[in-house]
Amino acid sequence: MTMPAPASQAAPANIWSTLARAVLLGFLLCLGILVIYPLLWMALSGFKTNSQIFSAPFDLPTGFSWANYVAAWNQGVRSFLFSSIVVTAASAACTVLISAWTAYGLTRTRMPAKPVITALILGGMMLSPTVALIPLVRMMQSIGLYNTHWALIILYTAFRIPFTTFLIRAYMLELPSDLDEAARMDGASDGQIFWRIMLPLCRPIIVSSVILHILFAWNEYLFAMIFTSDLDVQTLPVGLTSLMAKHGTNYAQVFAAMTISALPIVILFFLMQRYFIRGLTEGIGK
Amino acid sequence: MAELTIRQVRKSYGAMEVLHGIDLDIEKGEFMVFVGPSGCGKSTLLRSIAGLEDITSGELRIEGQLMNHVPPSKRGIAMVFQSYALYPHMTVRDNMAFGMKIAGMKKPEIEQRIRHAADILQLGAYLDRHPKALSGGQRQRVAIGRAIVRDPRVFLFDEPLSNLDAALRVATRIEIAKLKQAMPDTTMIYVTHDQVEAMTLADRIVVLKDGYVEQVGAPKELYRCPRNMFVAQFIGSPAMNIIEGRIVHNGGDHVTVEHAAKGTAEIALHMEEEVIGRSVRMGVRPEDLSLADDGPHIFSGTIDHIEHLGEVQLVHLDVGLSNQAVIAKLAGLLDLARGDQIRLRTAATSLHLFDDQGERLNGPAGG
C-alpha cells in the first residue's frame, strides 16, 4: 500500500517541471523573435515602396518585387560587396595562418623566453585601435597603401592576430605532445608537423577563428571609414552610409542594400555553426 | 660491439638532475626492459635514446656512432608511445605511410611495407579505418605497425600496455613477445612500471630508482640475487618480506640471525670477518615460506588477514611487529582462517641478507 504515495508526489513535480520548461521555451521564443524580427522586417521592407514603409511599417509588402534590391545592387552595393569580400577573405586567411603558426611556436617549440613573447603577443589585445589611428594613417600614407584594400587587410590582420593567437594557442595546448613527437620520429620538419598534423587537428578552432574574424572584418567601420575614401575600395559598412546620404529618402533601397550585406554572414554562420560552437567549447572552455 | 652504448648520460631540467650518469650496454637483438617506480627516470632515459630529449652530458652511441645531436628520425629508431599517438585525422594506412612519405619513398614500396606489417599484425581489414573506429588493442597494433614499417634498428616501447584492460594486456604482451621472435635482429627497449611485463618479456632488465641504475640483469638473476633491498622489494609480487635483525652466530658456512619478530634463522653465508652483533636486514620472499607444523621455523604468529587468489592465498601474519606483517604465499587448498596461530619455515638457501645500508650480503643459490 505504499505505491500511491510516490505517484502522488511525482504528479506535482511533473507539473512544475512542465511549467518551468514552458516558461523557458516562451522566454527563448521571445528572445528569438527579438533578434529575428528586425532582420525580417528589414528584408521585407526592401520589397516595399518608400511611402509604404512610412504609411504601414508593420504590414507585409503588397508584392515581392526585386526592384529595390536590383537598384541597390547597381547603386554601388556590388562594388562594396566585392571590397568587403576581398578585404575579409584576405585578412581572415592572413590572420588565421599567422596566428596558427604563432600559436604552434608558442606551444610546440623550445623557444627561449616563451612566457615573455606570449605576454607581448597577447598584450596586443589591450591596444586600442582609436589610439593608434593617427600614426597608422601617416604610416599608410607614407608607404602608399592609403585608400587601398591592402590598408584594411594589413590593419585587420595586425589587430586580430593577438586574439586569434590566444584562441588557437588555448586549443593547441590541449592537443597531446605525443602527436608531434611521433611525427618528429617519422622525420617530419616543423613545417610538415604544422601543415600535416597540427592544422588538420585544429580544424574546429580554425573554423571558429575564421568566423569570428569574418564577423569582425565584415562589420568593421572605423578603419574602413578612415583608411578608404574612393567608392571602389570602400567596404559595405562605409558604403551603406554613403548610400544613405545619397538616397536618404529612399529607405526601401537602403533596407534592400542592408539585407544584401547581412545575408552572406547569416548564411555562413548557419553553415559553419557546428564547427564554430565545437571550436570554442573545446578550446577555451576547458 | 654493443648495438647501443650509453656512457655517463646525465639529464637535467634546469637545476634538477633526473639522470645521474647512466652507463649501459645493450646488445644487438636484445629485449631490454627499463623498470622502476614513477619518477625514476625510465621514460626520460628512453626519450633521450629516441632523441626527443637532449642529453645534458655523456654519450649515446648506436652501432658505435655518436647520436647525441642526431635528429630522432636519423637514429634508425622507431617508438611506440604510451598513448599510441596515432594521427586521428588519418586512416590506418596513412598513419603507417606518413613517415615513408616524408622520407620520399616510392608508392609501391610504401604499399608493400604496409601490407607486410598489416599481415604480421592482422590489420589488413582495418587499413582504411580511422583510429577512432578501432578498439584499444587494434590501435596499439597500428602503433606497432607504424614502427615496423620504418624497419628500425632499435624499437622503443614507452609503457605500451598501460592503456589496455587486464585481459587485453596479457594478450598484447604475448603478441609483443611473438613480434620479438619474428624480428630477432631488432633491438627492443621497453619501459614499464609493471614488473610482470618486465619479467615475462625481458632478456635483461634495468631497474632504475631516482635516476640511478640499481641493477642490470636477467629476470631470474634479479629475482634470485637482488643487489640491494630496493631491487629485492621491487621485483616479485607480493614484495619480499624484510625484517631487521642482528647476527648472533657465525658457523663458517652459515650465520645465525636473531630477527625483530622474535625468532632466529640460519642463513647460508660464508663470512670471515668478525660479524657477531652486526645489524642486518633479513629478506624472504612470500613464495619461499611454507607452514612448519612441529619442526624448526623462522616466524610464528597470528593470521591477521587472508587474500584468496584461487590457486594460492596470501596470508598476512602478525608476528608482533607494530608496523609490519609477514606475508606468505601458501597453497589455496590449505584450510586457514583469520586468528589462527601458525608457524612458517623456509630453506636456509632461500633467505637473503642485506647490510644496514640495504646492500646484499648473500643470495640464494641458483641465481
Automatic annotation (TrEMBL), chain B:
**Can you cite an annotated GO cellular component?**
maltose transport complex
Boundaries of every ABC transporter domain copy: 4-235
Q: Which InterPro entries match?
A: AAA+_ATPase, ABC_transporter-like_ATP-bd, ABC_transporter-like_CS, ABC_transpr_MalK-like, ABC_transpr_MalK/UgpC-like, Mo/tungstate-bd_C_term_dom, NA-bd_OB-fold, P-loop_NTPase
Q: Does the keyword Nucleotide-binding apply?
A: yes
Q: Which family does it belong to?
A: Belongs to the ABC transporter superfamily.
Matching entries from NCBIfam families are given as: PRK11650.1
What is the recorded name of this protein?
A: sn-glycerol-3-phosphate ABC transporter ATP-binding protein UgpC
Q: Which source organism does the UniProt entry give?
A: Paracoccus alkanivorans
Lineage of the species this protein comes from: Bacteria, Pseudomonadati, Pseudomonadota, Alphaproteobacteria, Rhodobacterales
